[in-house]
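Build the 3D complex.
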Amino acid sequence: MKTILNEQQLAIIIRRLSHQVLENNIDLDNTVFIGIQPRGIFVSDQMIQVIRQLVSPEKVQYGKLDITFYRDDVRNQIHVPNQTDIPFSIENKNVVLIDDVLYTGRTIRAAMDALLDFGRPAKVELCVLIDRRFSRQLPIQPDYTGRSIDSIVSQKVKVFWKERDGKEEVVLL
Amino acid sequence: MQLSVKHLLGIRDLSRQDIQIILDTATQFKEVLQRPIKKVPSLRDVTIVNLFFENSTRTRISFELAEKRLSADSINFTASASSVSKGETLLDTVNNILSMKVDMVVMRHSASGAPHFLAKHIPAAIVNAGDGINEHPTQGLLDAFSMREKLGRLEGLKVAIIGDIMHSRVAMSNIYLLKKMGAEVMVAGPPTLIPKYIQEAFDIRVEYNLKKALQWCDVANVLRIQLERQNQVLFSSLREYSLAYGINKQILDSLDKKIVIMHPGPINRGVELDSDAADSAQSIILNQVENGVAVRMAVLYLLSGGREMTN
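Done.
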């Protein structure tokens, strides 16, 4: 087990990602943030907290998206869904999708399909905490990356969160 | 997390956890149904046949809609317009349909146990949409879903099932489900319509007085008086039934609390339920119908995967 990010690094990266996303999307009337269930929302919750401190908090539109019903592996395993909560229109908005680990790209493919069922966004961007580069199975790349890492298939990236696991850390198993 | 069963034949075979998974999944499907595009691609490689050997409007439409919202291919079959009227057996009929590559079967049949029989002989997943006087599991699930949605819980809830308990598969599924989820159950109606040993068999209350039943419960699930059974002399006339067991605004207002009114439909207005009660703010009858689609989507979704489809 190897630590990729400790608690302090994680906090700094979340802060940086929040600033970067905001820098490119300063027009908050036309920007919405969507965290991907179940694990991406730990990243998005923290980012939204930072963003709400930087701009007028009531203008930040934030939703959660579950992609269970859009997965391409339903025939192998049935997953029980999580909550989807997008209480605003995404029509013609810039959507920033937020997830924790980008690996094969299949989750993001499903997320984009799910998103399009809510409307036609002007633009979709992807923000991830960890990018496992060179392991993509689909042509998907992030716009904002916390940390890029090289890993092999047999390895696993695990992100721990204080609220859930009692500690904040990213490790390579 | 997966269901412990391969078919939905009855609530009787489900565990408490199965019921919990189905209701939680249905909550998410209900959200899908509020979206601009009320459709997900989960079952786009699945073909489902709706076999209705008995008449149905609500249940069939609800299943059909659930299948379409899941992107499944569906075909409909009604017994009256088929080879069944030429004397084909149930198994032959179903095997013929399955040889055309069908993955799941939704079946309603007037014989209790018909889906259980099929489950033993065919490889496809079977969803019971009502069999004789045995069970109507998706109705039980959608009733529970609606109660949970309205009142926030099932545990400890007091539910009175009122009417023709003897011939009601809805009552059976409700009793099994509510008992498993920790609710208190009472059945109420004329003694001729309540099976004799039901109290001992299910550990539930029995009440013959409507007012007392309503006073006790949080939710009244009112069953349809099956007009076709009127000639069996189980009660003397519809008018008399209505006088003794009909629920109207007057009796609801005379209670010292607001109870929730449910009905699986179709309502005989003026018999078991008066319009002023059926259309009141206390009634969640139309919510039940709405929730039916989400619950059936959950059942079909959860039974569709995790194993090889017929091919």
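The mean pLDDT of chain B is 91.
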